[in-house]
Amino acid sequence: MNDKTRQLLLEQVDADKDELLSFLSDFVRAKSPNPPGDTRDAAAHVRARLEAEGIDVRTIDPRPEFPNLVASFEGPAAGKHLVLNGHIDVFPVLDSETWRYGPWTGELAEGKLWGRGACDMKCGTTCSVFTFIYLHRLRDQLKGRLTLTAVSDEETFGPWGARYLMEHHPEVHGDCCLNAEPSSPLTIRFAEKGPLWLRFTVRTNGGHAAYTHTSESATKIGAQLVADLETLTDLDTPAPGNVGPLITRHSEDTNRALGEGAADIVQKLTVNIGTFNGGVKVNMIPSECVIEADIRFPIGVEQSTVMERIGEILQAYPQVSMEELLFNPPNWCSPEHEMMDILKSNVEALRGFRPAPVSSLGGTDARLWRYRDIPAFVYGPYPSGMGSADEHVDVEDFFHVLRTHLLSAYDYLSG
Questions:
Q1: 8 A C-beta contact, residue 239 and residue 191
Q2: CA–CA separation, 366 vs 340, rounded Å?
Q3: How far out from the chain centre does Cα 247 lie?
Q4: Residue 111: count of CB within 10 angstroms of its CB
Q5: Mean pLDDT by 10 residues, the chain (415 residues)
Q6: CA distance linking residue 183 with residue 197, whole number of Å
Q7: pTM score
Q8: Interstrand relation of 356-360 and 187-192 (parallel, antiparallel or unpaired)
Q9: From CA 293, how far away is CA 59, in angstroms rounded?
């Protein structure tokens, strides 16, 4: 590693602050809510900046409205292959939301940049884009290969983004993946819980509300089922190997990063009833109730264990059918990988503290690399207003995440 080169990279970030903020602001203005998921305007914004740098960019779009951008270069010497991953789709905006500056303005105010996707994750993807650009300029000094993947269809765990690339384009697998999803500068995520989405449908005969003796109520049965599903949170879910003690040791860091109480559920199975729909009008006995549940698996927990318990619960509910909508297994990689040490050292040099290795509560595309036994790490900004009104990113946190990714990618490819 060349200390002079590292300093020049940091000076380049400082010199480009106005351009970086302008790029991110325009990126937020390029609407890309998912659903519906059309990211063509946002992808065109990223592509234009890369091509202005003379970088060859491939568009891989199994669905035209879901383009994925891939760029790659090799240094003159053999070495490791690092993949930078970020997504360009964002959560939708509800009509009922009230925004201070507007969801698609990309407004710069109060030391923050505001708008849908500001923290999740157009900030992080911008960091990946400019890490690639800056290191492309130094490619003759690097070893191995650097690949950028800016993908669509992440917010719905859809099949047309990183999933498609990983299944059909092995050239993006690499030896390690670095991602800047919102996570908090205080932590580095090496693991994440896995979501299981289930739909339960309750059916009864229904009838007039005055004649409750003639039929069971689908909504009452649904309410009882919800209460029984909550007992899943009592299952014993120990972490594998040496990860359990590590998670416990950094519980205070987890709470600081994700809010008080987060450490209590990192290694617990959680149940959220996302939708509960039933009934037609107040004076009718509901004949149908549809319930959708999001069950989050901590690392080390097998789907079969949870499904066995759900099967036992459903034995008391012959009126209920169940459908699996989605399952992404929980996943983790070694917290002792060299990229973890590189990230910690660079954050310490930049901000004076060493971020804690933690497991993520939410899901990211980093899981797709871990499923293939490729280490993947997430270091990004705070999730400020993520998925809600007044989403924003702190400007200094944006620059800090960029500096951290830039130096860490350089260290990984020059060591």
A1: no
A2: 14
A3: 19
A4: 10
A5: 90 98 98 96 98 98 97 97 98 91 96 98 98 97 98 94 98 98 95 97 97 98 98 95 89 90 95 97 98 97 97 98 97 96 98 96 96 98 93 98 98 94
A6: 23
A7: 0.94
A8: parallel
A9: 36
